[in-house]
Design the sequence.
């Protein structure tokens, strides 16, 4: 898949209905500087506008790191206004992934620290290798997490555990990340991408419009009270019945044949 500008720090690959985004600054353990965040934004544009893409994997180049955080060298001399802008840039890009109308799987080979853990948490599903390590080390650098960590970590693991991890900067291994619900699955590092692609294939086999609306219902519904949440669900449930794939999925079931979804 083509993007109009030359990318230096992000690679975009496509294979059938799957797009893979690779954060590619291995010398800095894939740390996110503002150029990388802007490239990520461009790549998300291109995926968003491509109706052939049904699912996305985000990963980091090499086996050592997913992303080792926001770029500390770039942040060191920022003033408060510049830092707020940098935080807003990261938050804007991550929120776009979180609300992208296609499911996003983080495939985490190694370190997912600070902004790296935050990037993983902005994805829908996280698959970690046995070597993955997670932390929000910001307080040890004199800052708060700035790309959503104070908001998404408590939503994923509960406020008590999130406070413990953020206040202590403790690093957790993949097994502990699985235990506390920070990741969905832990696999050997050699099979990480195969496992992520296998999960992507299982998603791609379903009706893309239904999957998109499931994501919307979960994202919107979990942010509001239950009375409103069930209305959100009913609204998305209703929208499915405007799609040809709803009729195809149910007809195929009743006719005992395999389904042929068209993303319409
Ligand atoms: N920013 C910039 N450069 C980074 C980086 C980061 N977050 N993480 C690693 N690097 C660079 C190192 O400076 C080093 O560069 P040089 O070779 O030029 O010296 C290179 O990557 C390799 O790193 P190390 O030599 O440190 O590798 P290591 O194996 O000894 O340690 C590590 C690995 C434990 C991951 C260590 O690199 C580390 O602790 N990194 C920083 C992690 C961190 O604090 N992340 C949070 C950043 S703040 C943030 O993300 C804020 C936010 O929420 C927006």
Sequence:
């Amino acid at each position: 898949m083509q993007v109009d500008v030359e990318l230096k720090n992000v690679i975009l690959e496509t294979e059938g209905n799957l797009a893979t985004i690779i954060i590619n600054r291995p010398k800095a353990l894939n740390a996110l500087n503002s150029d990388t965040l802007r490239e990520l934004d461009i790549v998300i544009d291109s995926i968003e506008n491509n109706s052939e893409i049904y699912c996305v994997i985000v990963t980091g180049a090499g086996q050592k790191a997913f992303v080792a955080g926001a770029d500390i060298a770039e942040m060191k001399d920022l003033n408060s206004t510049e830092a707020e802008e940098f935080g807003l840039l990261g938050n804007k890009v991550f929120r776009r992934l979180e609300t992208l109308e296609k499911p996003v799987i983080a495939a985490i080979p190694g370190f997912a620290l600070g902004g790296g853990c935050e990037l993983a948490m902005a994805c829908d599903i996280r698959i970690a290798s046995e070597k993955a390590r997670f932390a929000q080390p910001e307080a040890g650098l004199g800052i708060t997490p700035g790309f959503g960590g104070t908001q998404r970590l408590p939503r994923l693991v509960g406020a008590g555990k999130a406070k413990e991890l953020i206040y202590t900067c403790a690093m957790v291994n993949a097994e502990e990340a699985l235990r506390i619900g920070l990741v969905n699955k832990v696999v050997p590092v050699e099979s990480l991408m195969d496992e992520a692609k296998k999960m992507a294939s299982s998603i791609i086999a379903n009706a893309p419009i239904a999957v998109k609306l499931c994501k919307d219902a979960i994202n919107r519904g979990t942010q509001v009270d239950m009375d409103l949440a069930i209305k959100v669900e009913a609204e998305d449930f209703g929208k499915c019945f405007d799609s040809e794939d709803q009729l195809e999925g149910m007809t195929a079931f009743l006719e005992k044949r395999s389904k042929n979804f068209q993303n319409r």
